[in-house]
Amino acid sequence: MGKPSKRDRKIAIIKKYLPNCTNTWSVYTYGNIPRKCIDGALTSYSGRIEYDDVLGLIDETVFGSGKKGMIFSCDGFYTNSGNGIHRYADQISFNSLPNSYNLNAVNEMLTKLYEIETEPSGWDIAASLFGSAMDFLQAMADESEDIPKDDDL
Fold this sequence. Notes:
It is a single chain. By secondary structure, the chain is an alpha+beta fold. Helix content is 42%, strand content 14%. The protein has helices at residues 6-17, 35-46, 103-118, 122-146; strands at residues 26-29, 54-59, 69-73, 76-79, 86-87. The chain has a 5-stranded antiparallel sheet with strand order 1-2-3-4-5, with helices on both faces. It starts with 5 loop residues before the first helix and ends in a 7-residue tail after the last helix.
């Protein structure tokens, strides 16, 4: 069996790290996120994300509406403070967070998500190998042009 997909590895990272990011607020991970919380986050601060693309959620509301907190998707995360999506590929890290958050755990999780997001895909590796092979063949062709042929002697 092959390596798990980037999405599956992101789910695993969020399931591992997100519960450690706060001990004050409700934390939900993929497969166990109440629809009510996702709907609250979508209408309040995150815009349009497909339900199945929500990998984790921190709900900072007392009654579980999801209208304040953080929501993590496949590509990045949103916070109720706005500013749109924070993409994992942008290598976001926080200098400070409210006391209700574990800054180190949040930044460690974001680093792991960045590493997954920016690793080369199989196609990137194949293209690189193909490019190297083509460079090698071109170098061999260039060298063979420099070797005198019998007719040149």
